TrEMBL record, chain A:
Chain residue ranges for the region called Disordered: 1-49
Protein name: RBR-type E3 ubiquitin transferase
Lineage start: Eukaryota, Metazoa, Chordata, Cephalochordata, Leptocardii
Coiled coil region boundaries: none
GO biological process: protein ubiquitination; ubiquitin-dependent protein catabolic process
Swiss-Prot/TrEMBL keywords: Metal-binding, Nucleus, Repeat, Transferase, Ubl conjugation pathway, Zinc, Zinc-finger
Family stated for the protein in its record: Belongs to the RBR family. Ariadne subfamily.
GO molecular function, one term: ubiquitin protein ligase activity
The encoding gene: LOC118415191
UniProtKB/TrEMBL annotation, chain B:
Keywords linked to the UniProt accession: ATP-binding, Nucleotide-binding, Transferase, Ubl conjugation pathway
SMART domains recorded: UBA (SM00165), UBCc (SM00212)
Record SUPFAM superfamilies: UBA-like, UBC-like
Domain of life: Eukaryota
Protein name in UniProt: Ubiquitin-conjugating enzyme E2 K
Every UBA domain range: 159-201
Amino acid sequence: MSEADADMASQGSDPDDEGLSDSSYQDYSDEDINDYYNYGPDDMEQDDRGQIFDPEAFEYFLFNKEEACQFLDERVAELTQTIQFSPQVSHTIGKVLLQAHQWVLTEVMERFREDSVQLMVDCRILPPPSRAKQVEPPPKQCPVCLQAQEEKDLLSLACNHKFCTDCWQRYFQVQVEDGVATGVECMWSDCRLITTEDFALSILKNSPVTLRRYQQFAFNDYIKGHYQLRWCPGPDCDVIYMAPQPLGRKVQCKKCKTCCCFRCLKDYHVPADCPTIESWLRKCADDSETANYISAHTKDCPKCNICIEKNGGCNHMQCFQCRYDFCWMCLGDWKTHGSEYYECSRYKENPNIANESAQAQAREALKKYLFYFERWENHQKSLKLEEQTFQRIQHRIKEKVMNNMGTWIDWQYLLDAANLLHKCRYTLEYTYPYAYYQEGGPRKKLFEYQQAQLEAEIENLSWKIERAEQTDRGDLENQMDITEKRRLTLLRDFSES
Amino acid sequence: MANIAVARIKREFREVVKSEEAAKCNIRVELIDDNFTELRGEIAGPPETPYEGGKFLLEIKIPETYPFNPPKVKFMTKIWHPNISSVTGAICLDILKDQWAAAMTLRTVLLSLQALLSAAEPDDPQDAVVAKQYKENRHLWEKTARHWAQEYAEAPKSKKDDEFYDKVSQLAEMGFDRHKALTALSAHEWNMERATQDLIS
């Protein structure tokens, strides 16, 4: 979406687009939601400020490298100021301590207060007390290159294993070549002490190329090690996300437009949580052969048997020949898909399965998986097809404006509707992996009920958008509101807090 | 070859030759070429292991960046061990990978390999078939490892292992390659039928 489009969209309804066009990097705030949904929030839960609880609200920032560097330096400064290091303990050691604790400041401080020496030993800055006074290498000779050296040219870490500057330099070159930076250890066998950034700097001061690569790798290590920071997973993107609360919520990169889950960096996946979606995707990859046969794109009309290709996202099908209305998923009559009876999102388990043979159980397990996979994949395809609908709408709006049928702004609601449809169907897609792993019981019944409700409203919305010319604007906007409310209700009740 | 690597290898070579272990014929090392890039090592099978009495040859290649990178070592003598590939002789040992330290020497490498023969790490396997046998049928693994040592590492033969020789010979008489027959039998718990099946397929 271009900047202009984003601005237009933000005048409408979609809080996501609001976030995109916002000049600050912060995601949409509660107020935006509040403004839009202010009418009739009777069934919405409210927090103590009287605002509606939004299950998807998530505070995060986008950093460039300099900002991330500054952010890291501030954390180190905070640490060194608070715990009053002894003079020889510096900024660079603070970094090592934090890196060893995923940069959780409070944990480092607590451990420091408990036993500062043990902390230094565990973080490999000081040798264990038992080893502190071990034999030194023969004096005035570097044990690596075996050359005679002046005492002053031999350098060591706190373990007192002395090596000459040349050897240290060559050693760093080899390590950096392998991509190692914050983990470069002492060269002595069995010695696990690690070098600090300052030490590397003093060794590499005369080899600028290696030094620059060292600093790049070290920075990368810090970002990967920090619990609040993530590299944007977009190709060649150098944006860094920062979330004060590292949860499995949606983040979007402003630069490359990648949209993902903050915690696992995979495609955003509520209401399923990160482990669920990981097992689901692995399962889908493993079972792809079995699932191949369902990837056929056509089905026959259940009434007149004419072959029908699905060319839109909506699951409410109308046969071109006999005008029969049916559901693409279950091929049943669409009339039975009123909200109370909408059942084709619910998998009906064979209640007697425990008594069946192993073969029957295996068949049942496959059937269950295919049931959820079919629906998950179907919504994925619908999302693709609805992208085309979106393009068509844009095209039609252009035509209308050209023919003096209203202005651009008059028709924006159609784009908003298409955006909202995408968002809702996206969530619906990810309810299927969630349902697959959810255990039976009253909560599953409630989930399936809400899922069915959402499914029904989404199909209504999709139907109305595809026939936007004949649909009344008020009717469409009403449908949008209902659908989004269903989505938020489901997320509020079922996504992890 | 970098000067530092040459200086180190010269010194380490002398260290091995003069070492206590060399005097007891436990380890040996010899030069293959004049520029110190390749050496041949030898370790004796440790006592009270299936490898006892065997001599195991090692190929040692010294990288340009030695001693900042570890030497590349593999077994030239075929061996039945969870951490050594029975096909290629490749070794899975931490000090030859990420736990290498520049201050380590050829002597420490050879002694570590000898220690590996005494104490396998089946949870960090190089050869999955051997590791599985080691964990599930330790007795059969011992017999198989001893047989391999006798076949390839000149370990002394004893009467009680005749059964395995007969089986290998039977398959060899059927026209199969002796080493392939031995490998197939070892991988299939010395079951003639399954080994034959494996050799045919």
